[in-house]
Amino acid sequence: MSNLTLTRRSPHIEARSWLEPVQAMLRLSFRGGPEAIAAASTSFGVALPTTACRAASHGARSALWVGPDEYLLLAPESDDISVRTALTASLAGIAHSIVDISHRQAAFLLKGPHAEWLLGSGCPLDLDLAAFPVGMCTRTVYMKSEIYLWRTAADVFHIETWRSFTPYVVDHLVDAARECAA
Amino acid sequence: MLVIHCPYCGPRPEPEFAHGGQAHIARPQDPTTTTEDDLLQFLYLRENPRGLFRERWRHARGCGRFFNAIRDTTTDFFVTTYKVGERPELPGGAA
Amino acid sequence: MKARTTAGGRVERAKKVRFTFDGRAYEGLAGDTLASALLANGVHLVGRSFKYHRPRGVLGAGAEEPNALITVIRDEARRTPNLRATQVELYDGLVAESQNRWPSLEFDVGAINSVFSPMLPAGFYNKTFMWPRSWWFKVYEPKIRAAAGLGVAATLPDPDTYAQQFVHCEVLVVGAGPAGLTAALSAASSGARVILCDEQSEMGGSLLSERNATIEGVPASEWIAKTLETLSANPRVRVLPRTTAFGYFPHNNIGLSERITDHLASPPTHLPRERLWQVRATEVVLATGGIERPLIFPGNDRPGVMLASAARTYANRYGVRVGERIAVLAGCDAAFEAALDLSAAGSTIAVIADARPAGSVDGPGILAAKAAGLRILPNATALGVTGKLRVTGVLLGIVGADGQVVSGETIACDAIVMSGGYTPSVHLHSQSRGKLSFDEALGAFVPSTTAERTRSAGFGRGVSGLMAALQDGAIIGAEAAAAAGFAGGSLTVTAQALDAALSGSPGALPQLAGPIPPAKAFIDFQNDVTTRDIALAQREGFESIEHIKRYTTTGMATDQGKTSGLNALGIVADSSNRRIAEVGLTTYRMPYTPVTFGAFAGPARGDQFDPVRRTPSHEWAVARGGVFEDVGNWKRTRFFPVGGEDMHAAVNRECVAVRSSVGMFDASTLGKIEVVGKDAAEFLNRFYVNNWSNLGVNRSRYGILCRDDGFVYDDGVIVRLAEDRFHVTTTTGGAARVFGMMEDYIQTEWHDLSVWITSTSEQWSVVAVQGPKARDVLAKLTTDIDLSAAALPHMGVARGHIGGVPTILMRVSFTGELGFEVNVPAEYGSALWEAIYAAGQEFGITPYGTEAMHVLRAEKGYIIVGQDTDGTLTPDDAGVAWAIGKTKRDFVGKSGMDRPALKAPGRKQLVGLLTDDPSVVLEEGAQVVLTPNQPIPFKMVGHVTSSYFSANLGRSIAMAVVAGGRAKMGETIYVAMPGGDIPVKVVSTVFYDPQGARLNV
Predict the structure, then answer these.
(1) Which of A6, A7, A29, A162 should be substituted to probe chain C, the one whose Cβ sees the most C Cβ atoms within 10 Å?
(2) Architecture of A19-181 per CATH?
(3) What is the CATH number of domain C294-420?
(4) pLDDT at C106
């Protein structure tokens, strides 16, 4: 059975006017100190933000601040080899950690005029544009699930959950959206 | 639901945090010289003050960092929060 | 609608609304509450009281209502009991029923309680229902509940939906009366985010009940409309009617309960019934107004006796006359204003009995009443009423200069309205831990110092008069916004109103002298507490108002003393010769008014109550009838029944299949943590009890984790993926807490280590393939991994591919058989499961669940942390001391487990137990004793931790912790059971293949 190919099955997220599944991508958990952050910024091609709770993007690659020494690096899956090769080379001899968490999480976009309201049905953060501006990102909670939250536009949030929590989060959002439909 | 100032992320809602008990409990460094009394102090004996209390929190569902706080146990108001390794004075010069 | 006025008010006279009350059909108007509609139909009798089943009428017009508690029924699943009729908005087809009566409201058998009332004083329950003790829950509790009670809740699941919403603002204004509206206007003018909520259907508060007030030169109703227009046009303002601020939580977190569809005849299905708002406000303005107090006199609870403010509201807002001939009892200037309004609505004012202490200065209300020619009887008091289901008259007394009361005339009337003065609604201020001080002039408590960032405004802090309240609101609103960083808000406003004074003297009206206070002068209508109960409590030695509250139940439960609190204090103060300020105040509890369970539960119900985490094999297992169990939030397949098997049969088959051929098991839920850094091995050395420095790359080892107290905390296999990279597995339930504990030691103890951890629990899907044919199955799936025993020995790890997907293949076994755990990136997990199942067909591969997994590991004596250990076992107690790295200087738990008590002889140790009768399966948790038939209490020496029937061994097996157990090998001890003590032999925990020959093949 050498010709066996395993089929990939991503968590099913039904697209809606306000909900858009995000295709599979490369996700790396990057950990390291200032030197590693500087080196990774160069090789990854995105300056890893040193301001708390901020994300930066260049092209299709993004770096999200998660903690003072922790970043979520996002890139197209097709960049897998090139990203890892470049990071490994630039970080040689510098203390750091890179762990592949591409499959740990699933992502979707929450968008439209009700996005902020829908998120407020389970997220206790102040999501007003002044308090949570475009480009802000953080780990937080939605209902009983941890989520990664990243505002990519005034009315668009990029949300990631651990894969087994995705149905729970999406179903609650769908629930909350019922009254916005009419 | 309290608002807790994470020293890294700023004011955030309590559900993002995990409480970590009394702060500044030093773990005995050398098992060969650790006495039973040291262990008693380290493992079990904790303050339960009425008033200001130094305690640990972890921004578990945020940046993941442990940090310390001074909280008034009678009001649930925080005097301050600070990073591991720091130790600001209490107002009034108390310990 | 015989009591309806011809014009005026805020009801829509052209829109008739039909409803039923206790099965009788009535007609009301759009804009009515159930109470106003009933009163418009001349219905005063609406309920029976809690304890004495006294007939009760409508006392108030809003949240303060203690009597008119009714049940609204939409259908069998939608019965809402204990609603205040004064807050139930009428809709077409509304069905309401009275409560606490049988067989009918007019004739209630339970009213016999009233006859026996001398035997039902305060503390009656505490004194009477004491013996026998066994009757507490079986007899007394249910009987008391049935006899004294409120409405009955629906027993069907609630079909409605409930929403919850977090929301933030700079200024939350609670209450949309005059002060609240101007507070919101001035705060909003600063640009701050403002939320204005009010419990009523319409914003306006007391303004909605005004007849002649003008603001900014226009009638109050016009000004309200204009104000709401301004507020609604501001995108940073949210106006929430039908929304009660019920609780003030720390750090300016305020709970609001919004009723969204209860007022609609046909609620749209897409709307939630209610929404629980969790507001985080930088600053809060409490513009909660006040509540009028009843006067305390005998019979003050009879239907037809009502608060003057309520009567005024019914006349001015709803166009309803509460009586044709009304007696007014004035303990406050406001009663005169009410008399004028009631007179204007067409009622005859029989008398205004002025019960205020002699020497009061005539306020604007009394002057206007005099000018209108109303009959005023000074120095009056009420000695009783006539009429039972509705008042027919009031017996007045005259208070002489010496304070003695003499009987006066009986005035015929069909309604009595009373005003004992107004109490600022300080519930929320008090909940926020704000302090109160007694305002002697007002005769009530007002907010003094605050604990939270909160301000009271208007009458909520004792500011009386329309103009003053409006201006106070404007100033406080601007202050609040400025404190939140939005300076510059302001508002000027002028107004004209009668502005009767709202002060009064809490306590009972003077009565004819006598040793015992007259019966049935009610203080707390909802809880049926009379002046006599308070006197009794004091006679029995209760001095603290907190004790009196609990002994008499005054001010308790859903009412929270809205109408009764201050009067109770006044009576206690009078009879103990203290000032009210000295008596003090009981603490107000949330909720201000009841909140439904639905609102608190919100959308977290059914499948959405908790996250349901599903494994890669979930759908496959569902399709094959797999039976699941909850492990944390995970659904794990417990067993896979075939052809109608029960669990026992399925588990036996699965267990035998694994040992005879091959089985497969979804192990994806195991916690996984990747530990990376040049000090990764040193970190694990310090963290786990084992030594990790000598673990080679692509090798694995079973690790034991203790807490610093030396007790076993978690376990799992740890793989060295590279010199500086480990793949750590934890128990399913321990994943999050082990991760947190690792972070703790990395961040707060071992700053010298260069190491990071990352959770990979959900990065990897894991299928365990176990059994003598496991290698044969996997050989069909992989081309680049050498599965031979030489290349991949027990505890070896290989990296390669399966089906083109990168794989970590661990040769590990939790069954004692040749076994592998196949790790692939999670999104390939379900395909991997299917591929292994397909490849295993020729070997009869058998999927097995957690139950078989438990049996198989128990046959081998492998422990499950949390089942065979309970947080009080050291590694030695659990029989895994061999795992401890003996040469390590320190690790978590080293000093702890070295304490003398943890090494003392006679500690409970994990051993195996075999019953003499091989068919007897012991109960897990059963107590172990050394000898049978001991006198009770038995000396218990341990308990059974794991117990199963082993199909492979053809007999039962068990593990237990037994004091000094390892020294008792071969001895017979007993497991104590109700049916008799069961003899068991102490044996090794390894029941199957003790040499481990089957592992190393």
Answers:
(1) A6
(2) 2-Layer Sandwich (3.30)
(3) 3.50.50.60
(4) 82
